[in-house]
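Below sits my pick:
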Amino acid sequence: MIKPKSMFALFCLMFVAGCTVAIAPSLAKIGLSFPDVSRSTLQMLLSFGAFSSFGVSLFVGKIQQYISQKTVITAGAFLISTGMIGFFYTTSFTLLLVLSLLMGAGSGAMTATIPALLSTYFVGEKRSIMLGRNVSLQAIGSMLLTSLGGTLAIYGWRYNYLMFAIALVSGAVGLFLLPNDKKIENKDDDEEATGSELASEEDDKLSMTSPTILTVLMLAAMIMFLLSCSQNNLAIHASDLNIGNSSLVGLALSCESLGAIIAGFFITKLSVVLKGNTLIFGYVLMTLGNASISFIHLTVGFFIGTILIGMSMGSLMTRTLYLLTSGVKKSAIPMTAGLFSAVTSLGFALAPLIYNSIAGLISDSLATTSFYLATLFGVILILILAVTRFETRLLKLIKF
């Protein structure tokens, strides 16, 4: 069994892996400090990090063949901690963009490697449970730090950046407590297969480049594409409609994390009931969440919407990664997890460009219109999944 101190270190690192979006509540205030920066450029503080995370995720699976997963994960935490520099130097928007790139690279290294580690050394329902815990712990970290960041931003947006000091602490914990070898847990005896059994199981697995796996990766990208609408636009949407300040936005965004926490702990059991409708269920939650923010221009609309979006994210991230890692050969798991992290980052990074381009043709209220578009995209995706019965056919294909 894994040593308690190693699991503690891993949990600490999971906690900070996705915290780079914690500056979202400060976007409106940062915009006031840099009035010459356009709103689309302002949103690059989040999407630049996503682009960086995408780039790192593409090759981090290959890196794991040469250096320990501990090194990759802790290095990622230390890169995220460079965000602290934003607390001390506040006169350069370019510097903030550079910090976003560094933090995004760190997050990409962590979010790609932690699931790969879990998927390599856990199987079956235990794998799904651990992946769910990973999503939940990342959401807990995002929730607490986003809420804290929104509160600190009342006194000045630069205080939001001071929160990234916790990534430095988590990185140090991982450096001292995680083992140096890649393998952090030996599988239980009853989970070990004989050579012939393993070979037979591997023959049934899909290639990373198969149309089915590529489709699941596309669905993973759509998770963050739809989720990013709230992360990028909620603060500006609230400011435009005079609904609330940065503290309220931070609290509302933290509810996304709360929803993800709930879903991460229960989606494994729920998927047993939903079976081939699990993905549809997740996207229905996402669509209802964006619709709530779109049509209910009140505080209650914010909180209902963000909780539903968070529950969707927790459900879909756990389910798609479980389907991916269960569908490919064991040797391909690190690369597959890296691609998963890459496409989700790409979906997040491209979202502002796509939303703003389309919304600009419809209305001057880019942020509010983006929520209407996210709702529409969600409805279309649900219809496609329902008509094609994609998940049901996938489960039969990879013999769950």
Q: What stands out?
A: Residues 6 and 253 are 30 Å apart (CA to CA). Residues 183-198 have pLDDT under 50 and may be disordered.
